[in-house]
Amino acid sequence: MEENVINQSKDITVIEILDRVLNKGVVITGDIVISVAEIDLIYVGLKLLVTSVETMQEKRLTIVKPDQEKK
Amino acid sequence: MKKIIYAILSTNQSLTEISDLVNGMKGIMDANLYVLSFNDISIAVSDFTPSKDITNRELAIDFAGVIEALSQQVTLLPVRFGTFIKTDEIVHQLLVNHYDSFLRNLQKVENKCEFGLKVLCDSETFSTKISAQAAAVEVQPREYFSTDTVHTNYLLEKIKINKLEDSLFQYVDQLIEDISQYLTQINPDSKYKKMVTNSILLDAVFLVKKNKKDEFIQAISTFKQQHDDLQFLLTGSWPPYSFVDIVIE
């Protein structure tokens, strides 16, 4: 059942993964955290955000079409 | 050598069992995964040598893969990618200091998983549809202005745009209500973001009991069949990234 309903696009899955690991979950900041390329990380996050919207718009006509679930 | 944190784990088992669980598992950059524990919770960490390579997309995906593998075995709280701490002692202290908060969140997500649902539309077609509906309630100048002025047309146009936006938000509110109705029996926790862009009407996440996964998917599938003019992007199941409410500063 999941194969028919849940999106199987690799691109979208990657975007969803990156959105989660970069923007969600337990947030630990402050003195105890070692800053590693923090600015670059923020940049990657923003770039992904922009890309994710663009990609989804490109994909919107190819995803989860009603006839897919009738297979 | 620093420590990168992956997740907070609920570990009702003994420390030996938890160590056995992660024994042989690899973190990012092929480092061995291990746990630091306090009472019935643990933190999964691995050694990491900081470098600019951390901005590598593949590394972030590998990081998610470690969390996914762990989530197959235990209830966990994912930690945001890019959290580095200097020593094991500081990591352990973090666990002790925030034990209550970690435990509370772990209990909230126990035996549950996350699904993402984006509802998309063809913005042009959809705007036309909503415009047609809004036009039924045409703006009457005399409702707003007693006399015509040079600014009347401009102001009327602005009022009309506002009415369109209101119509759109009402549509999305109704959509949320309808989805909630479909999911009543499953009763998931949910979060909704409305009108993320002109094309993304709704960005929702659901926290679903693992034993209700199939039921949830079926409900969304049925709902989707009744909305041919919209595109549904359902993803999951995920570890509960969006239902963790912990910010440690």
Quick synopsis:
The complex is a heterodimer of chains A (71) and B (249). Chain A is mainly α.
Please name the defining characteristics of this protein.
heterodimer, A: 71 residues, mainly alpha, 56% helix, disordered C terminus, B: 249 residues, alpha+beta, Alpha-Beta Plaits, 2 domains, 4-stranded antiparallel sheet, 8 helices, 10 strands, 25% strand, elongated
How does this model look, in words?
The complex is a heterodimer of chains A (71) and B (249). Chain A has helices at 2-5, 10-23, 38-59; strands at residues 27-28, 33-34. The longest helix of chain A is centred in the C-terminal third of the chain and has 22 residues, at 38-59. In chain A, 56% of the residues lie in helices and 6% in strands. Residues 60-71 of chain A have low confidence and may be disordered. In chain A, helix 2 runs antiparallel to helix 3 (38-59). Chain A has one domain (2-70). The N and C termini of chain A lie close together (11 Å). With 71 residues, chain A is mainly α. Chain A is elongated, with a radius of gyration of 16 Å. Chain B is of the alpha+beta class and 249 residues long. Chain B has 2 domains: 2-109, 2-Layer Sandwich (Alpha-Beta Plaits); 112-243, Alpha-Beta Plaits (2-Layer Sandwich), CATH 3.30.70.260. In chain B, 42% of the residues lie in helices and 25% in strands. Chain B contains 8 helices and 10 strands. In chain B, the strands form 2 sheets. In chain B, strands 1, 2, 3, 4 and 5 form a 5-stranded antiparallel beta sheet that branches. In chain B, strands 7-8-6-9 form a 4-stranded antiparallel beta sheet, covered by helices on one side. The longest helix of chain B has 31 residues, at 152-182. Chain B is elongated and about 80 Å long. Chain B starts with a strand and ends with a strand. Chains A and B meet through helix 1, helix 2, strand 1, strand 2 and helix 3 of A and strand 1, helix 2, strand 5, strand 6 and helix 8 of B. Strand 1 of chain A pairs parallel with strand 10 of chain B, so a sheet runs across the interface.
